Amino acid sequence: MSFSGLHQMLAYPFMVHALAAGAIVAVMASITGWFMVLRRETFAGHTLSAMSFPGASAALLAGVPLAAGYFGFCALGALLIAAGSRTAGRRNPSQESAVIGAVQAAALALGFLFLSLYGGVLVDLESLLFGSFLGITADQVWTLAAITVGVLAFFAIAGRPLLYTSVDELAASARGVRVRVLQVAFLVVLGLAVAATAQITGVLLVFALLVAPAAGAQQLTARIPLSIALSVLFALAIVWIGLTLAYFGNYSVGFYVSTLAFALYVVCRGGRKLLPA
Amino acid sequence: MAGRAASTSPGSAPPGDGPIATPPVIELNDAAVSLGGRTIWSDATLRIGDGEFVAVLGPNGSGKSTLLRVLLGQLPLSAGSASVLGTAPRAAKGQIGYLPQRHAFDATTRIRGVDLVRLGLDGERWGFPLPGRSDARSRVDEAIRRVGASAYARRPIGELSGGEQQRLLIAEALVARPRILFLDEPLDSLDLPNQTAVTALLNEICRSEGMTILLVAHDVNPLLPHVDRVAYVAGGKIVNGPPEQVITSETLSALYRSRIEVLHTSDGRLVVVGQPDAPSHHSDRHA
Questions:
Q1: Containing domain of residue A94, as a range?
Q2: A251 lies in some domain
Q3: Is the pLDDT of residue B184 over 70?
Q4: Closest partner residue to A227 among B74, B110, B127, by Cβ?
Q5: pLDDT band at B49 (very low <50, low <70, confident <90, very high)
Q6: Given an 8 Å threshold on Cβ–Cβ distance, is B126 in contact with A224?
Q7: CB–CB contacts below 8 A, A to B
Q8: How far apart are CA B158 and CA B104, in angstroms?
């Protein structure tokens, strides 16, 4: 891969769209994922990505746009998880994971039910799982950018109390933070971010982008601003390098992105031992 | 000290309080609270004066944390009234520092102690915690110095020992300069030297700043040299008064409605014998 090769790559509109959409998705997923990892809601994030499957098949069955199915089911999943995961007004980790597991099983079953009712096969199972990075239109890029602005606005407004409830829920609640409202709001934002991202990256990749950069960054530093910045940087690097390798190489974007995400996490785990804090 | 003037008549539960010079900071009048249809305690009358150091004692599940939740305005009373700083508990929450009962942070919690303390200052406000405001930073540093945690406040909280974490959590509760401090079993996970050190620190804060402190504990002994008053929660009642009047065979036997003996060891410790185990409804340890 040479400089002229890169120059040539950027002459293709589909590659420019993919790189732009990838950057937007990287920023949204890494920041949402940073809070998800801190809050130990990774399993919820995974289940919300799986909601894309019944979402897509329900949309096919009902004859509505795929996006409506993605957003509808991800939001529904977020509300179900939020409703079932608390006892006596507090987060209950053991109940939470059981509820999330049950929601995920139901989601997959519903996905298959809708698919068999539809009577066909989901034409593009591979793009559901691994995305359709290279078929992105300019309109999709703008839609994605608008959703990302909304998600970032949520964190700009609610970031501090959300952080407080994430590390010290009872103390935050005693100070008047609306813990319950923030938990539901965060899960819904997570669901929307996942739905927006999954349409482009696929169900499997969105999860890689949510978890790996944030978990890697948190391994390296406990300073909050630096940790978030590293998380964004890692996600951008993973997506852009993955797209570039896919352009020049023989394998799919999904393979490169998920492999890079995994490698990054392993390197960060190893790197933690070498760093002071 | 105003609290010492209070007198109780041992053996009668709940004992009335004598006159307190200043108006009480915390007051319960014939209060009762129930959770899920079950009465946790009732007929509770409690008056805590300004600057008193109070130990809240009692078996698991007797309603010690419930008492704190009532005073924080998180739980309504089913009878009677409660006031904190002369207003409804909910209205006073900005003046209360609260250290909840918890398990320690483990190594996967990747934020620094100083970040946690900062959240105690303004974590409830909207916005995003940007590094900056130097007055906020100096207040955070002051609170950290106050608890003697400056040496390790910038390390990840999960890598610190239980005693170090507890000091930073106290700084988190203190940093907003509350008038009242609630601590729910802060000594629970600490070894004896740390229990002594943390108790002495709290006593020093209570005396030098006139802060009113309610501390929930299992064992009164580390607290005995310091506390002005004991609120004993057991058998659906709350008895309060100076420790030498409450922690007696007569008062505790009346409270538990069974034979309890309080023994004094030669080194000044108290041993309570015959204390029934936690009640059978141990589903919620926080109740």
A1: 3-272
A2: yes
A3: yes
A4: B110
A5: very high
A6: no
A7: 92
A8: 8
Residue A157, domain member (yes or no): yes
Question: Nearest CA to CA, how far is A176 from chain B (Å)?
Answer: 7
B173 vs A: CB within 8 A: yes
Query: B65 to chain A: nearest residue by CA?
Result: A170
Identify whether A277 is part of a domain.
no
Res B2: pLDDT: 41
Q: Which residues pair with A86 in a beta bridge?
A: A91
Query: In this predicted structure, what is the pLDDT of residue B132?
Result: 65
A155 interfaces chain B, CB cutoff of 8 Å: yes
Per-residue pLDDT of A162-221, as tens digits, reads 999 999 999 999 998 999 999 999 999 999 998 888 877 787 788 789 999 999 999 999
Q: Is the link from the previous residue into B178 a cis peptide, with omega within 30 of 0?
A: no
- Find out whether A21 and A77 touch, Cβ atoms under 8 Å: no
Is A42 near chain B, with CB under 8 Å? no
- What's at A60, amino acid-wise? L
Q: How confident is the model at residue B15 (pLDDT cuts 50, 70, 90)?
A: very low
Q: Find tokens 């987060």 and name the residue.
A: A91
A144, amino acid identity: L
Number of folded domains that form chain A: 1
Q: Does B193 touch chain A (CB under 8 A)?
A: no
- Joined together, the tokens standing for residue B228 give 């002005």
Quote ipTM for the complex.
0.88
Which pLDDT score is estimated for B1? 40
The CATH number assigned to the domain holding A65 equals: 1.10.3470.10
pLDDT digits (tens, 9 = 90+) for B216-275: 998 888 898 999 999 999 989 999 999 989 888 888 888 888 888 888 888 888 888 876
User: Got the DSSP string for A207-272?
Assistant: HHHHHHHHHHHHHH---HHHHHHHHHHHHHHHHHHHHHHHHHSSS-HHHHHHHHHHHHHHHHHHHH
- Test B119 with A172 for CB contact under 8 angstroms: yes
Query: Is A264 a domain residue?
Result: yes
Quick check: A168 and B154 CB within 8 A? no
